Amino acid sequence: MKTILYKAEDRGFANHGWLQANHSFSFANYFDKEKMNFGALRVLNDDVIAPKMGFGTHPHENMEIITIPLSGVLKHRDDMHQDWQSVSSDEVQVMSAGTGIQHSEINGSEKEHLNIFQIWITPNKQNVNPRYGQKKFLKEDRNNNLQILVISMDDSHEGSLKINQDAVISRIDLDADKTYNYTLKSNNHGVYIMNISGNVTIDSTTLETRDALGVSQTDQFLITANDASGLLFIEVPMS
Asked: Gene3D superfamilies under this entry (predicted)?
């Protein structure tokens, strides 16, 4: 099994006043040639956005973009939706940029900060028609149980959002002293594990809050929760 440890404090950081951004991979003005991607995973930004602030209208193309609000309410508007779409912290949003899309994202609250994970995954199909989706995922459904959020358009798993890549995005909340055995889709896949909160051990490596571990070249691995912990798994093709 191959592992790469990504410590929380080693992420790129940008303070824009209204935006506090942590970059797991090279993004915008942050560049690290050793952190360009993890397989098809290109971006994982951990953003805190001030009330009423956000990103004005800007373009994307040929990228699968997944947004997970951790706290607060995100408001989204794009070429396909002239009205603002609200995405709460119990929902996940996906957007296939495809041939091109313009969108805006803002903090939907006038008082509370918004914390989101924004994920970019390189698609396996180019120049598709843009598409949008969002779905609610109950917190109780991931208590000591793997909750699948996003899968490939080619997979048939019910109740998940879909993107144009052979990827799986999932979450689990583990009670202290609980274990979970994660099984990968294939030998060509790797998993980027973000420890959202708590303290876990994977293959003798301990992850604290916002530490991450890239795992590849294995069929499965065991996770042990040393404290109550929440984890995000981004499983992607490595080549």
From this structure: Jelly Rolls (2.60.120.10)
Q: Which of 36, 28, 46, 67 is nearest to 194 (CA)?
A: 46
Nearest Cα to 64, choosing from 41, 95, 104, 87? 95
pLDDT value at residue 178: 98
What span, in angstroms and rounded, lies between the C-alpha atoms of 13 and 30?
8
Q: pLDDT tier at 165 (50, 70, 90 boundaries)?
A: very high
Segments making up each domain of the chain, as ranges: 2-237
**Binding region:** 58, 60, 103, 105
Q: Torsion angle, CA of 210/215/220/222, rounded to 10 degrees?
A: -40
Indicate whether 82 pLDDT > 80.
no
- Tell me the whole-structure pTM to 2 decimals: 0.97
Binding residues for Fe cation: 58, 60, 103, 105
Q: CATH: 3.40.50.1000, 3.90.1300.10, 2.60.120.10, 3.40.50.150. Which one for 2-237?
A: 2.60.120.10
